[in-house]
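Reopening this one. Same input as before:
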Amino acid sequence: MKDGTIGLFIPCHFYQTGGLLTSLAPFVPTPIEIVKKMLEIASVRQEDTVFDIGCGDGRILIIAIKDFNAKKAVGFEIREDLYNRAMQEVKKQGLEDRISIVNGNALDGDISEATVITLYLTTFGNEKLKPKLGNEACMGTRIISHSFVFSDWHLSKSEVYFEHKLYLYTIPEALLIQDTKPSLLKRLNPF
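Same output, byte for byte:
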């Protein structure tokens, strides 16, 4: 650039709303050791179904199955090139029976089957996803976010691991302190 500044372009995950294209997050792969720590903090077990929002190259899904023996893993990836790369790796590893990836917008997808949801979005992306998580995630679902918090949600746990901040939220506890809307209270105590 003429003024001596350096320009940087990072490809982003996008969704369409009202004709506007809005970015949820750039594609920045989570280092393998951080993926394992995220899944450990979320206490992924054999009975879990792990969802990864913006799954990129599929590494979290694959590690959830191979290293944590999760029952099933589901990813959402809006970029076709990353979706294709992830699916190629899933097939190469022979995990098609336990991993599925949707080439589409997670905001339009069904997350009700998730017992663990992993995220490495942005503050903006988390805020866009927050209503969906609050309304659709099942009781007991653990949400682990890499680097970015949910404003007004109560943390179950936070940890810094090799300078990476990891935040764990559990539904419904994450919602209790900050949100006292009648609809939420009815959902938490239907009697």
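So the earlier flakiness isn't reproducible anymore. For the record, Residues 1-23 have pLDDT under 50 and may be disordered.
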